[in-house]
């Protein structure tokens, strides 16, 4: 058994980045450009600094990409404005910073260190929508009617100030119960009303999306509890009304951006989840639970099945969701030319979907922002179709690599935490079966590992009991035997 204090997780994270094709150190030409950056945000002709903008993100997040504001218009109709950090204003296309960001394509969160796509002077500084700081933004505005349908929309540039930087756990708990509000909310009745209105609109958007067949999934996300630099436990990140609110607003904004670029005759990068290749296994899982799904992929039928299972067995719904997510497969970026029919996003039940709301963290979003600004300035499209194809491929490749790095580090961190629990038995769900072996995730704590004994006959979605037989924090190995 390895000594947990001998495991340098910071060094392991950096090594994993290198092994998966990332360059974790900013080159000298990027550092030189940082030194010459302008210190004040560009001046916009539209001044929206007086609005009660707010952000909701993780407790520790400093790379804030978007802030939100809502206003009642007529009975049942609400105007939503989502301000997205104007990263392009500080990162010119073709600059050293841009070239580095294009190569990395995504910020990687390892649990012990964040490897930023952009230098932190930008991502957590000049281009982050931090509380009380004047910032340049691209605003996506749209009206939502009483049925949750998005109608009139507009996109423009503006100056904004985040008036309240809030966090998912505390806001989510308050929205769920309207008790124990965070101090910033307690101190401002206007902010209370603003967030309640946003939550109401988000619920309408989500209800309409579910009506169209969006999948109501609840996957398990975890983060390490670190004490004195060492992980001591694995905590689950709970889904909440606050995280749902932001997700619903971002999906709506991304639809608006995609449709606006389409209407302007611009090609764009779309995010798609293709029709699931393992639909037969999804049908089999549903049949085991007493539901017959169509033999051809049908997102609405799948959503009805998921809603029923959430109501019937909420305790195991995250496990079912995990199985469905694995069988649906990962999303990818693709070129869409104006006038072509989009593949859409199977899991979200949206036909027009791009990534635009996180330009500090995803290069695809920064490229989309440049397309938007060219559209607003009535200029020619700033990227050729061939450029967009190459960018889409690179972003897909790097996001796949980022998931591998993050998975590697989750396993290393979990191996450190689980070393003292060898010999214990856990309830688990099978998460993967391929030529490399069979893989499981324990329910509590939520950690992933390989099934090294008793793997014959298992498939994704099976619920089994496993015994922890070995951990190797240096390599991130966690081995289980079927009990």
Q: Can you tag this structure with a few keywords?
A:
globular, 16 strands, OB fold (Dihydrolipoamide Acetyltransferase, E2P)
Could you walk me through the main structural features you see in this protein, from its secondary elements to its overall organization?
Helix 1 runs antiparallel to helix 13 and helix 7 packs across helix 8. The protein is globular and about 65 Å long. The two termini are about 20 Å apart. It is about 35% helix and about 25% strand. A five-stranded mixed β-sheet has the order 1-7-6-3-2. A five-stranded mixed barrel has the order 12-13-14-16-15. It has a two-stranded antiparallel ribbon with strand order 4-5. The chain has 13 helices and 16 strands. It has three domains: about 35-275 and about 335-400, no CATH class; about 280-330, no CATH class; about 420-480, Nucleic acid-binding proteins (OB fold (Dihydrolipoamide Acetyltransferase, E2P)), CATH 2.40.50. Strand 2 (about 65-70) and strand 3 form a beta hairpin. Residues about 1-5 have low confidence and may be disordered. It is α+β, with helices and mostly antiparallel strands. It has helices at about 10-20, 30-35, 95-105, 120-125, 170-175, 185, 190-210, 240-265, 280-290, 300-310, 315-330, 365-375, 385-420, and strands spanning about 55, 65-70, 80-85, 110, 115, 135-145, 150-165, 220-225, 230-235, 270, 330-335, 425-435, 435-440, 450-455, 465-470, 475-480.
